[in-house]
C-alpha cells in the first residue's frame, strides 16, 4: 500500500507531516543528493488499532528484498520517527526505541512492533510533560540499510552551549554510533573552524573531515539553522544518518509565542535605537509584520535577520553587520564608531561575538541585495516629496476600502495590491530614503564637535524645525494650537492621530480612534503653567547666542558654517517626517487585521495570529492556529509582567532568571561576567542629549499614561521615550532615559525645546527613585546624585 510505506525518494512535502522528523530529514537529504543509506518510511497509517496491517507488511517485505538484492548480506536498522521528534521544539533523542542489525523478515517485524510500542514508554511520557507537549504521539518508523562503520560520530554546526559559530564541534568513536549517542562509550573530540574548515583532532579522521564540513555547511544553509548531524564512515565513505535542529539554539515555541532570539547563539543585541520607537511588548501579529519588513530590507547574508524578538521586545543584532564589514576587511572599531550615533557606545569589555562569514560568501550574497537596495533607495529619495504629500490621503483611502470589505478574497486583494506595497514603500522611505542626508548631518556634527565641543555643537544644530515644524514636535505643538483655537480637534486627529506611545503595537488603538486620550492631553496642558511656545522661543535665543559665540571664535566663518548647518538640518527634518508617514502606513495594518478577525469570527484575537497564518487563511486554508490563541495570550501576559530588559544583551539570555536576581544589572547583560548591579555611585553617565544644567527632583515613570503624576519642573526619568511621551516634555525640567543615543527621539526633541537631557544611561530607572534630587548636565551627559537632605 503506497499510502502507508514510502521510499526516501518517494516522500513528497505534502507527506512530511506524516513521516515524522527523522523520516522527513532522511528523505530530504536523500533527494538532495546527500550520502544517505537506502531506506523507506512506514507511516502511522500502517498500524490499525496497534496492529500492522497485512497490506503494509507485504509492501515492507517487497522493499526489504529490493535492498537485499542491491546489497549482499544487508542488515537493517529500524528506528522511530515520531511526528514530534527531531523538531526545533524538542528532539526526543533516545526516547523512542531503535533496533539494529535486523536480518530476517521476522526480526524486522518484531522490531517494528518494538519501536511502535515505545511511544507508550514512561520515559516518553515524562519527556513530553517536561516539554509541555501532548503525551500521546503518532509515530512513523524508518527501515534503513545499516552501514558497518569504522567510525561513527556527531557534529554540531554551532556550539550547543554558548551558541558560538566560530567552530563546529564533534565527537566520534570507532564502531557503531549508538554507543556514542547513548553515552556508553568515551568519545574522541574534533573541531572544524567555520570560515575555512580547518580541522583539529586525531589524524585518523582528517581525510573525511572536509567532506563532512562541506555537507554540514550546505545542510545548515538549506535547513535554515544550526544542525546536529549523526554520521558514519564505512569503507572510507562518509554517510549521513540523521539531521536535526540544535534544539538548545532554538528561539522557542512558535505555536505558544515563546520567542527569544537571544537563545539562537552568541550574538550582541541592543534596543538602544529600535527600543525607543518600539517600546511595547509585541503581540504575534505586530511582531510578524515588523519581521516581514525586516526581511524586505535584509542585506546581511546568512540565516539570521538583524531584527530580533527577545520575549516580545524588539532588538537589533549588531554582531551581523559588524561581522560582515569585518569579513570585507573593514576595521571593526571604525564601524562601531560610526554606528555609535545610532546604537550608542558599548560598555567596556563586553566584546562583540563575530559571526565567521567568509569574504566570498559576503560578496556573493551582498551583490544582488545591494543592487536591489540601491534601486529601492534611489526610488525612495526621488519620490520622497510625493510620498510625504500623498501618504495621508492614500492611507485613509485604503482604510475606507478595508472597512467596506465583505469577503476574504477582497481583503486579500487589498493586501497584495495596495497595503503590502505601501508597507514596503514606507519602510524604504523611512529608513533608507533619508540616510544620505543624515550622514551629512552626522559628519558636520562631528566637525563642529571637534571645533567647539559636543555641547556647543548640539546647540548650533538644535534649530532643526527652523521655519518649518519638526514632525516629532507636532503632537505637543498641535495640542497648543487646539487650545488656542487655531486647529480643530478633528484636524488634529487627522494630522497626528496615528502618533502615540503604542503606535507600533497594532492591538492597541491609536489616539485617532478615540478622543479620550486627546482630551486628557488637552486638560494636562491647560492645567500646566508651561508655555510650549515660550520654551521654543527660549531655545531659539540659546541657538542664536551659540552662533554669536561661534562668530567670536571664528570671525568670518559664521555665515559659511550657518549655510552648511541649514542644509544638513534637512536630514533630521525629512527623517522625522518620513518616519511619521511610515507609522501612519503601519497603522493601516491594524484595520486589515481587525477586518480579518471580523471575517474569521475571532475579533481582537486576530492579533494573536501571525501574519502568515492570517494570509494563509485568506488564501483558503484552515485557521488551525486558532487553537494556539489562548496559549499565546498567556505568554504575552508573562512577557508584559517582566521589568524593562537590559538595553544591551550579550549571548543567551533568560529574562525570567535574570528578573529573579536581586543584584542584576539593568544596563547590560553579559554571561561572561557575574550578574551584579553597577556600584552605587554619586554619578551616572550617559550620552549628551540636550545641553543645559539643572537641579531638581526626579519622577520615575514606566509609561506615558502615568504622565499626570509628573509635576511641572520635575525631572522625567524613564526607560525610553517615543513620540507618545512628547506631550510630557514641556512639563519636565530635564529628561533622563535608560535607552537612547545622540540621534534618538528624546535627544532631538529635548534639544528643540531647550530641555536638558541625558540619554542612554542604562540603569537610571534602577538607580534613581521618585523624589531623589539630582543635577543634570545635558551637555556633558552626566547626572550627579545629591545626598539626602
What features would you highlight for this structure?
elongated, alpha+beta, 789 residues, six-stranded antiparallel β-sheet, 44% helix
Please give a quick description of this structure.
Helix content is 44%, strand content 16%. The protein has 789 residues and is of the alpha+beta class.
Largest sheet: 8 strands, mixed
Poorly predicted regions: 85-94, 123-136, 179-185, 675-680
Task: Tell me the total number of β-strands.
Answer: 28
What is the rounded distance between the termini? 87 Å
Please tell me what the overall shape is. elongated
Over the alpha carbons, how many angstroms does the gyration radius reach?
30 Å
Helix coverage percent: 40-55%
Mean pLDDT: 84
Question: Biggest sheet, strands in spatial order?
Answer: 21-28-27-23-24-25-26-22
By DSSP (H or I, 4+ residues per run), the number of helices equals 26
What is the beta-strand fraction? 15-25%
Which structural class is indicated by helix and strand composition?
alpha+beta
Describe this structure in words.
The chain has 789 residues and is an alpha+beta fold. 44% of the residues lie in helices and 16% in strands. Helix 12 runs parallel beside helix 21 and helix 13 runs antiparallel to helix 21 (570-600). Mean pLDDT is 84; it is low at 85-94, 123-136, 179-185 and 675-680.
Amino acid at each position: 500500500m503506497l499510502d502507508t510505506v514510502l521510499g526516501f525518494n518517494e516522500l513528497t512535502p505534502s507527506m512530511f507531516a506524516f513521516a515524522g522528523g527523522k523520516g522527513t530529514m532522511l528523505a530530504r537529504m536523500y533527494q538532495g543528493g546527500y550520502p544517505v543509506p537506502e531506506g523507506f518510511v512506514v507511516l502511522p497509517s500502517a498500524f490499525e488499532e496497534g496492529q500492522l496491517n497485512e497490506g503494509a507488511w507485504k509492501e515492507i517485505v517487497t522493499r526489504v528484498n529490493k535492498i537485499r538484492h542491491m546489497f549482499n548480506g544487508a542488515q537493517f536498522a529500524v528506528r522511530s520517527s515520531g511526528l514530534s521528534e527531531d523538531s526545533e521544539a524538542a528532539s526526543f533523542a533516545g526516547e523512542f526505541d531503535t533496533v539494529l542489525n535486523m536480518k530476517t523478515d521476522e526480526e524486522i517485524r518484531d522490531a517494528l512492533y518494538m519501536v511502535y510500542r515505545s511511544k507508550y514508554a514512561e520515559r516518553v511520557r515524562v519527556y513530553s510533560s517536561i516539554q509541555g507537549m501532548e503525551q500521546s504521539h503518532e509515530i512513523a518508523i524508518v527501515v534503513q540499510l545499516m552501514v558497518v562503520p569504522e567510525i561513527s560520530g556527531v557534529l554540531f554546526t554551532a556550539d550547543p552551549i554558548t551558541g558560538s559559530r566560530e567552530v563546529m564541534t564533534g565527537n566520534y568513536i570507532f564502531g557503531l554510533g549508538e554507543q556514542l549517542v547513548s553515552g556508553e562509550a568515551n568519545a574522541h573530540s574534533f573541531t572544524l573552524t567555520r570560515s575555512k574548515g580547518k580541522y583539529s583532532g586525531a589524524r585518523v579522521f582528517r581525510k573525511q573531515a572536509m567532506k563532512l564540513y562541506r555537507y554540514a555547511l550546505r545542510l545548515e544553509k538549506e535547513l535554515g539553522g544550526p544542525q546536529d548531524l549523526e554520521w558514519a564512515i564505512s569503507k572510507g565513505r562518509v554517510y549521513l544518518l540523521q539531521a536535526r535542529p540544535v534544539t538548545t539554539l532554538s528561539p522557542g515555541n512558535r505555536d505558544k509565542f515563546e520567542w527569544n532570539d537571544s537563545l539562537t547563539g552568541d550574538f550582541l543585541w541592543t534596543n538602544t535605537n529600535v527600543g525607543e520607537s518600539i517600546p511595547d511588548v509585541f503581540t504575534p501579529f505586530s511582531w510578524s509584520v515588523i519581521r516581514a519588513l525586516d526581511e524586505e530590507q535584509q542585506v546581511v547574508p546568512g540565516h539570521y535577520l538583524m531584527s530580533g524578538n527577545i520575549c516580545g521586545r524588539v532588538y537589533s543584532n549588531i554582531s551581523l553587520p559588524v561581522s560582515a564589514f569585518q569579513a570585507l576587511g573593514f576595521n571593526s572599531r571604525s564601524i562601531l564608531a560610526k554606528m555609535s550615533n545610532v546604537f550608542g557606545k558599548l560598555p567596556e569589555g563586553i566584546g562583540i561575538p563575530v559571526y565567521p562569514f567568509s569574504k566570498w560568501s559576503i560578496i556573493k550574497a551582498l551583490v544582488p541585495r545591494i543592487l536591489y537596495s540601491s534601486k529601492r533607495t534611489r526610488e525612495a529619495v526621488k519620490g520622497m516629496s510625493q510620498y510625504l504629500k500623498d501618504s495621508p490621503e492614500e492611507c485613509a483611502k485604503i482604510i475606507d476600502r478595508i472597512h467596506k470589505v465583505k469577503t476574504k478574497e477582497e481583503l486579500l486583494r487589498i493586501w497584495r495590491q495596495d497595503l503590502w506595497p505601501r508597507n514596503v514603500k514606507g519602510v524604504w522611505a523611512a529608513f533608507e530614503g533619508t540616510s544620505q542626508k543624515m550622514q551629512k548631518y552626522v559628519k558636520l556634527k562631528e566637525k563642529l564637535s571637534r571645533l567647539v565641543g559636543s555641547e556647543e555643537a548640539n546647540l548650533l544644530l538644535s534649530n532643526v524645525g527652523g521655519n518649518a515644524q519638526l514632525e516629532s514636535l507636532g503632537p505637543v505643538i498641535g495640542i497648543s494650537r487646539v487650545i488656542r483655537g487655531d486647529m480643530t480637534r478633528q484636524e488634529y486627529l487627522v494630522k497626528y492621530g496615528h502618533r502615540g506611545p503604542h503606535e507600533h503595537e497594532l492591538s492597541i488603538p491609536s489616539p485617532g480612534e478615540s478622543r479620550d486620550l486627546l482630551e486628557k492631553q488637552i486638560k494636562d496642558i491647560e492645567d500646566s503653567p508651561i508655555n510650549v511656545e515660550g520654551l521654543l522661543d527660549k531655545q531659539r535665543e540659546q541657538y542664536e547666542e551659540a552662533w554669536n559665540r561661534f562668530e567670536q571664535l571664528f570671525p568670518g566663518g559664521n555665515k559659511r558654517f550657518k549655510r552648511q548647518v541649514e542644509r544638513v538640518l534637512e536630514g533630521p527634518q525629512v527623517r522625522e517626517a518620513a518616519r511619521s508617514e511610515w507609522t501612519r502606513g503601519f497603522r493601516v495594518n491594524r484595520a486589515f487585521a481587525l477586518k480579518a478577525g471580523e471575517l474569521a469570527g475571532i475579533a481582537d484575537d486576530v492579533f494573536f495570529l501571525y501574519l502568515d497564518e492570517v494570509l494563509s487563511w485568506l488564501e483558503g486554508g484552515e485557521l488551525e492556529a486558532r487553537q494556539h490563541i489562548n496559549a499565546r495570550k498567556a505568554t504575552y501576559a508573562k512577557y508584559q509582567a517582566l521589568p524593562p530588559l537590559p538595553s544591551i544583551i550579550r549571548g543567551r539570555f533568560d529574562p525570567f532568571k535574570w528578573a529573579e536576581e536581586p543584584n542584576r544589572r539593568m544596563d547590560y547583560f553579559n554571561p561572561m561576567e557575574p550578574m551584579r548591579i553597577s556600584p552605587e555611585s554619586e554619578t551616572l553617565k550617559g550620552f549628551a542629549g540636550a545641553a543645559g544644567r539643572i537641579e531638581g527632583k526626579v519622577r520615575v515613570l514606566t509609561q506615558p499614561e502615568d504622565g499626570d503624576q509628573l509635576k511641572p519642573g520635575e525631572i522625567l526619568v524613564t526607560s525610553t521615550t517615543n513620540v507618545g511621551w512628547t506631550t510630557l516634555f514641556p512639563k519636565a525640567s530635564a529628561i533622563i532615559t535608560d535607552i537612547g543615543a545622540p540621534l534618538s527621539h528624546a535627544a532631538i526633541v529635548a534639544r528643540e525645546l531647550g530641555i536638558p537631557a541625558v540619554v542612554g544611561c542604562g540603569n537610571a530607572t534602577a538607580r534613581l527613585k521618585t523624589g531623589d534630587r539630582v543635577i543634570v548636565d545635558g551637555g556633558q551627559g552626566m547626572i550627579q546624585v545629591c545626598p539626602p537632605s
